[in-house]
């Protein structure tokens, strides 16, 4: 029967779109009543019954028995002679209930109902997905790679919902194939073109924070607090942690025995180096810890400028700055200070600022050297040619010439 087919169609919809039975019945009943209103002008005298077990529905109409000559509205009233044909016991003023066959409404009404239901259910599903994920912003979700495009990846979660992982939110060394399992954090949920858009991220500091919560029970239980996270995805991250229980070593708890806890996080982040730092409100000590593994000899805080001058032995400078200046940049972001590196030396000879050589060395060359923390002649000479080639964009010949000019100053 068409009735049964109609219910079967939307029972399949229910399974596919994860809409609960009570909501489905409510939507079906509303759809039927909208058809009744269009056809009869009202649905108040109709009972719509959805049969869960049988998978079909019934529509019953209630009409008042009136004299044949008083019949005005065949939808709300039934003549006494017609009522007697149904049951000879009917009398004036009583209510007659008879079943209305939806098939009698015609093919067009049935098609219209199908389309209406499809639109209603799809809209309901979109709304359900939006609200479900709106409350999950900041949570880690796991899904399967379904489609890979140039600018983004389509991921399907366990319930068949579509999630988007943009290229900008992927770790540079991420490489996925169709069918791969992916973990990421929900960073944004919005409605775009009337469709829910769920954006994931693997580069957000929140993703790293959630991974720590999964791997370190003390963080999950609130015994250790993550104060701040800064990271360059896939390269390096610094995590400041604090314990409210003096018996707990926050750094040791996060790293785990022989690095057991942090190794899982490092693997998930494509071998991103993670520095776990014990947070302190002592600014000098915090900066010192943030610049590990470099050993600092002195720090001068310039609060009004938001800067800090950091003094180190020459051999410690490269450790403080890090590859491409990454270590000092992240340390600055973590502590909230712009960090300037200065070298201390036991030698009696006075050093000379690089700006003093502007007549002999091009300004852009001097800027390249300053960018990697070399602001004096000796700071350049303390580094090997190979080290300078790696850390700057200068050619070896240029570096050799610069060293020659600087060396002449101390001869």
From TrEMBL:
GO cellular component: cytosol
InterPro entries referenced in this protein's UniProt entry, alphabetically: KH_dom-like_a/b, KH_NusA_2nd, KH_sf_prok-type, NA-bd_OB-fold, NusA_N_sf, S1_domain, TF_NusA, TF_NusA_bacterial
SMART domains assigned to the protein according to its UniProt record, in alphabetical order: S1 (SM00316)
Highest taxon of the lineage: Bacteria
Pfam families noted in UniProt: KH_NusA_1st, KH_NusA_2nd, NusA_N
Subcellular location: Cytoplasm
Function in brief: Participates in both transcription termination and antitermination.
Name of the protein described by the UniProt record: Transcription termination/antitermination protein NusA
Source organism per UniProt: Carboxylicivirga sediminis
């Amino acid at each position: 029967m068409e009735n049964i087919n109609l219910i079967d169609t939307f029972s399949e919809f229910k399974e596919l779109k994860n809409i609960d039975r009570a909501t489905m019945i409510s939507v079906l009943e509303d759809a039927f009543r909208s058809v009744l209103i269009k056809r009869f002008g009202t649905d108040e005298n109709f009972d719509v019954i959805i049969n869960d077990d049988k998978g079909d529905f019934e529509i019953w109409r209630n009409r008042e028995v009136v004299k044949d000559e008083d019949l005005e509205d065949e939808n709300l009233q039934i003549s006494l002679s017609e009522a007697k044909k149904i049951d000879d016991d009917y009398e004036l003023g009583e209510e007659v209930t008879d079943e209305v066959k939806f098939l009698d409404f015609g093919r067009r009404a049935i098609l219209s109902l199908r389309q209406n239901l499809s639109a209603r259910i799809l809209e309901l599903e979109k709304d359900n997905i939006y609200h479900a994920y709106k409350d999950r912003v900041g949570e880690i979700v796991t899904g399967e790679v379904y489609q890979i495009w140039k600018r983004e990846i389509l991921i399907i979660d366990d319930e068949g919902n579509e999630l988007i992982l943009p290229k900008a939110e992927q770790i540079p060394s991420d490489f996925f194939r169709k069918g791969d399992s992916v973990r990421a954090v929900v960073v944004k949920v919005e409605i775009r073109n009337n469709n829910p858009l769920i954006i994931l991220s693997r580069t957000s500091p929140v993703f790293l924070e959630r991974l720590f919560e999964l791997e370190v029970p003390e963080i999950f239980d609130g015994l250790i607090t993550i104060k701040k996270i800064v990271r360059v995805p896939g390269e390096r991250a610094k995590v400041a942690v604090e314990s409210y229980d003096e018996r707990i070593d926050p750094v040791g708890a996060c790293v785990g025995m022989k690095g057991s806890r942090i190794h899982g996080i490092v693997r998930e982040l494509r071998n991103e180096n993670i520095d776990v730092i014990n947070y302190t409100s002592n600014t000098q000590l915090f900066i010192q810890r943030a610049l590990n593994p470099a050993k600092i000899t002195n720090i001068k805080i310039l609060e009004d400028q938001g800067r800090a001058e950091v003094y180190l032995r020459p051999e410690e400078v490269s450790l403080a700055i890090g590859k491409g200046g990454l270590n000092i940049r992240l340390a600055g972001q973590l502590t909230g200070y712009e960090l300037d590196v200065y070298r201390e030396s036991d030698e009696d000879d006075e050093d000379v600022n690089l700006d003093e050589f502007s007549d002999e060395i091009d300004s852009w060359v001097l800027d390249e050297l300053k960018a990697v923390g070399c602001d004096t002649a000796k700071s350049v000479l303390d580094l090997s040619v190979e080290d300078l080639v790696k850390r700057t964009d200068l050619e070896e010949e240029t570096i050799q010439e610069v060293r020659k000019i600087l060396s002449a100053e101390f001869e």
